[in-house]
Amino acid sequence: MAEIKTMAKKSWFLPAILGIVAIAFPPFLGGYFQHLLILMMMWITMATAWNLLGGYTGCVSFGHCVFFGLGAYGGGLLYLHWGISPWWGMIAGPLLAIIAGIPIGLVTFRLRGPYFALSMLALGETFRIVFTNWVSVLGGACGIVSSRTFGVEKLPYYYIALVIAALSVYVVYRLMHSKYGYYFVSIREDQDAAEGLGIPTTRYKMYALIPSALFTGLAGAVYMNYMAYIDPEVVFSLAGISIMMILAVMVGGAGTLGGPILGAVIFVLLNEGIRAAVGPISYLIFMVIACLLIMFLPDGIIGDWAKIKRAFRGKKPVYVGGE
Amino acid sequence: MALFGQTFVTGILIGGIYAVIAVGMTLIMGVMKIINLAHGALMMVGMYVCLALFKSFGLHPYLGMIPAMIILFGIGWLLQKYSIERVFGVETILPESQVLLTLALGLGITEIIRLIFTSNYQCAYTPFSARCFYLGGMSISQPYLVGFIIAMAFVAALHILLTRTDLGRSVIATAQDRDAATYMGVDAKRITNFTFALGTALAAAGGAMLLPIFYTYPDVWHPYLAKCFIITILGGMGSTVGALSGGLLLGVAETFGATYWSPGYRDVVGLIIFVLVLLFLPGGLKKVIGR
Amino acid sequence: MKKVKLGLVLGLAVVLVAAFALPGCVPEAAPPVAPPVAPPVVPPPPAGPIKIGINLSLTGPKASFGVIDRNSLEIARAKFGVTEIGGRPIAFIVEDNRGDPSIAKSAEEKLATLDKVDLIIGGYSSACGVTQAAAANDLKVPHILVNASKDDITMANYEWVFSGARVPASHYADAMWSFVDEVLIPGGVKKVALFYEMTDWGTSSAKGLRPGFEKRGIELVYDSPYDSTATDFKPMLTAVKAAKPDMIVAVSYLMDAGLLARQAAELRVNVLCYMGQAGGYTMPEFLKLAGENVNYTMSTANWSRIPAWKGEIAGVKWTNQEYYDAYLETYNAEPDYHGSQGFAAWQIALDALLRVDAAGKPINRENIKAALEETKLMTTMGLIEHKEWTDDMGHHYYNQGLPLTYIVQWLNMKQEIIWPLEGKTADYVFPVPKYEER
Prior knowledge:
The structure holds three protein chains of three kinds. Chain A has 17 helices and two strands. Chain A is mainly alpha-helical. Chain C is of the alpha/beta class. In chain C, a hairpin with a 2-residue loop joins strand 12 (310-313) and strand 13. In chain C, helix 3 packs across helix 11 (320-331) and helix 3 packs across helix 12. Chains A and C meet through helix 1, helix 2, helix 3, helix 8 and helix 14 of A and helix 1, strand 3, helix 4, helix 5 and helix 7 of C.
């Protein structure tokens, strides 16, 4: 917590500069970079949302693709069954994610640590299989091809994604600077102690889950509208969505405000940069970099900032587990 | 009746092979208390080692299993010593960074195998792979049966190793209480490395048993990883008997789901069992059986 | 605390400004630099290479077929030996999309805007095909599809997207229906068991098959998707056997096809006819996987090295067999129809490029597109034309040809064409002998 405050004190103007750049700069970029920026905003939203539940509250979910997928399918199903504009999915998707999130939370919050992680993983897989098989209601494996509103124009998608990303960061910031934030962190640090102090942990975990599901769902709805195509393999993907969300947060720094943002930016740039540069071995290189980052900066770039600074100052870095 | 019997037998036989793969994971989870997401990928490496031996020396996978286990034991040891141990037990904001590391390792290993062996589907079939005999209207495949028998032998041997030898007892002691074991003179670090390597070797054995009846490609491991979790949770962490009963139960439940419900939903059966066990039987079958 | 508040206010301001910027007021936000997106359209210097983007899944779970496609494109390029047209060398720019639709879109955007390619060839999985086609159409780059068989892709009225040699999933079974009418129904087939792998391809194939059986009064006694990565299919086959069908219709990838054939033999699931739907059942590896159990298995097919299709492009003659041999020699593996579609994609592309050049026009996106619209070419997949038409299911296609389909049967461990009769290489065997009597 102290960390967040010092960060905020030191660089309160940073969001402003970033915001101005994020608003004013993209119109000058080519379509390809605008596309990457849209993905980046989407991943910032998802990473920030995951971080609220995983990083701050300590409930590491390996199944956030459930909320992403439901967010995407909200609009998709409206379009599939009633031909309604998938933009209504921006409301229906997150709503669906929250509606599903509440019972999921009630069930899985009884579990802790790795058991919680695994049960979320199982739920993610279950959703994927059910959405693949239930053709009449959910469209099945063929997925849903919807219409695209803006056609070639990418900027509207970008600004929508930007607003959602900014909103998610703002909401998490506010939450973490309220009493909720302190409760969340206390649950992460020691759940038994938090319970002993009279914090209803399940309820507070739920308070973290709902915004988390909401914003992940919103990101899913943006994805749906932007890509105009979803199928269960893609939006309920364990390796492609759930895991990558965690990876982005952990690379940047779990339990920090800037971590998910930085992590998502690095994630998109690194992923696409390596892919464009080296071709088919890119995934291997990406994974090697991920391994090294986790091994040497287990708290992420922002979380281990001190360690990085020390290393750059020429002092011998103290590697964790090395002594 | 033939439908029921056939379903049951198929489930039991495949469940035995699941059990061998899962028993490795349950050991690792029991001792290290971390989820090892690289387990499936290491099983896949084992399959490829057997495949390479089969292709170049004509060594049957059942024989190739032994060198494969030795090689994978080494790989497991090295991975644990030089990578996972670095983050193991380190104070971080989220202890799950270890889980993520094992996953990144698994995905990286998959890509290395892809570079060496390409993405093509490959198999090591011999005439033996297709042999089967008939018993009262049910067909029993010989490679399944042999795989099942070898699997049972492995589980039994492991059980004896864990309960009757000093090494095994140190493993169990480390699993039960790491600090206490250290005070009693157990080199917990070494035991952890050993457990990880042993678990990896067992995964390779499971992969070798799958090879004559199945096929392999770099991403073959995804469903098996999920099955390992389910069995580990179902059986209880660190318990060989639990893993065995969990494996058989999962195999039977899956095949019944596929026969009587829908083949498309067969994996959902396992996942439902998984969540139900987590909620209503924490500790798994181990608790019920009383180890 | 004050500073924190200030930060909050600023953060809020950012959100508000973002909200204002949202409703498409982009030009106002940046008035001095008027057309922001595309740099001034300067035609590339004539000596620059003709760039062909290749966008395929080369890593990830869907890599194996993407790699076959890329290899086949390379074989086709080597085969026809055209290295430059109109003094401009031909360059392939290969992008790996990992089989992920959003990465496929990224790659397509990169090819179109950064590399400024003249033509894109790509798309193995349907999911990637959808996003690639949409992006190519938005960016006005001609795109030739390779495999992606989802019907919707060419039903979307994308004028820049060309079907190439791919077959829409609902048409894989075209050749089967005449066989059903003339041979199977008179032969006593009344009940059919249908099972299909549960991803997009299998599901849409099954969707195309059901009405056909319904129309003919054939009862579907078993109808279920399955997971093609499952270890054993005995539970499903046991249930199929219990349903007592006369015929099995299966939509399978390669490895599951092999396992299904073996396990059907083990369980003695005797039927009058086991009909696969292309996919794994026509691939050379099917023989390796299923051994002698391949015998009597029938399958619809849209490519085989047997048909004596041949032609000439750029003065180089080709046949199906030559492509097959070249692939076997170069990559030490047998190609399948996916690869043939890749080979055909380059045939179609090269033909279009040569026609543009022959007409004396510069080779650019517009002209390539115009040439592709006129495509009428014999390829390894049969005669390909890009037309707008409606099929009997009411699907309205754009830039879509319809490669020929036929039926093969495995006889004495060899694939023979049995239907249509005029192209047959062997007589069909129906009903097939029981497993016990083989």
